[in-house]
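User: quick one, fold this
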Amino acid sequence: MGFLGFYYLFEGAQFMFGFFGFFFYAKIVPDELFLLHFRKAATKAFFVGGIVMAPIIVISFAIESSAWLRLCLTIPFFVSMAIFVISLAVFE
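Assistant:
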């Protein structure tokens, strides 16, 4: 995930620099508790992302503007990333 920060460095999307924070996990030696917390946070983020994506897909059939469609389809990604980061911070 940290490499997304490098990619968007040259694309001009400064809001994607938050992905550099995932490089801090490169130094962590994963033990069983960390892997359990990581799995629990990823599972929670996956299901919340799916729940958020379902109504947005239904709503996207009514939207004719491609700009609004792109915005609506990126919302579940950011919601699931936020849930993952917050859950992992709480578990750790």
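User: anything notable?
Assistant: Helices lie at 3-9, 32-60, 66-91.
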